[in-house]
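Researcher: Please translate sequence to structure tokens.
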Amino acid sequence: MLVVRKISASITGTSALTFARTLTTGNNLSHNNGGGSKTRGLPNDDYFATIHHISNIVRRDIYLERTLNKMHISKIVNSELVYRVLRSCCNSGVESFRFFNWVRTNHPNYEPTTVEFEELLKILAQNRNWETMWKVAETMKSQNLAISPSVVSFIIEQYGKRGLIDQAVDLFNGIKNFNCPQTTEVYNSLLFALCEVKNFQGAYALIRRMIRKGTVPDKKTYSVLVNAWCSAGKMREAQEFLEEMSKKGFNPPVRGRDLLVGGLLNAGYLESALGLVKKMTKEGFVPDVGTFNCLAEALCNSGQIDFCINLFLDVCRLGFCPDSDTYKIMITVTSKIGRVDEAFKILHRSIEDGHRPFPSLYAPILKALCRMGQFDDAFSFFADMKVKGHPPNRPVYTMLIKMCGRAGRFVEAANHLVEMTELNLLPMSQSFDMVCDGLKNCGKHDLAKRIEQLEISLKGI
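Model: Translation complete:
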């Protein structure tokens, strides 16, 4: 099975290269419905090779229109192809615009949809081609194509990141001319832009206007302003804002103190965030699961692993409900410092909560057992996980083979290597080399020869 896949991949790569060369010679493309989409008129491999080839021309060719004219691709030009090319040229603003114009000019049967127009708007905004972006927007307006709130929000945020707040405000005030409503998402983008330039007074006024207009704030509305205030060291203002919003009946989807913890973490104030969480736990409250996960990662990155584990145990006693990300973080850190018993307890708790162990959840425990020299326990645990958890993936097998090799257990390494191939997981060349060399050094020449033959058969040499 693996040999067939390998040969197939080799043929695919060759056909793609051949097809790209055919395009550059200017030969007409023939329709091939065998395995290809009816709208594409090409087999999938050739179709994506074409997109890759066109994208390279758009990004790198100075005379891209002249080169594209030599490619007779009229039969496969459609909205999907144009969109895919634009997506792959997201860092080439002017070039993407030239390609879009070339398609519209040279292919009368092609009618651009809102999807391509909006993708081009985002590319031009991201690359600061503002004048060209507005030309495209006016073209959409002339064709009665509305711009979605998500694209308007993206452009406003791009203005904010560049400090062009006046342009961001003008776009916000004028979006009705493009048949786009001032949704919560659009308000949040302008709020973000105002916070980027530290205009907190304007941001606060915008929220008051938002409420006055009947638009309901969401989690991002609160978090954007709280994060910005915390980044500027204005925690008191953030607290007062949350209290005021609560009094007015606009309670955030996440509790205020969780937002403050998140804002402090984003601003790099780990100790302040930690102090706030400690105060919460003393009062019998537990943080939101997302807030705790962010705090746990920050604590581990700062080297405070023991404290993180103890904090996890404390909040669990208060009724904290971990999610799969929480378990992954905690199992990884407990295994890393050798507290395997604690890692096992956390794993069993995740199973009791209904989570089926996945590879990145049990791999840290497996690695820790191997590091401690407890290979019998590791193999037993691995066998248990193959039955009760998700099937092991390639990185887990590779790690286990490497750990066996480091301990001189080359027969076990060979067994796991063969097991990989039976599961259609192709081992790395380094794994084959290590196992073969180790078997030869310990006198297992027959087994080493079989492993070498296995590698040759898999590679199709």
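Researcher: Any highlights?
Model: The two ends are 15 Å apart (CA to CA).
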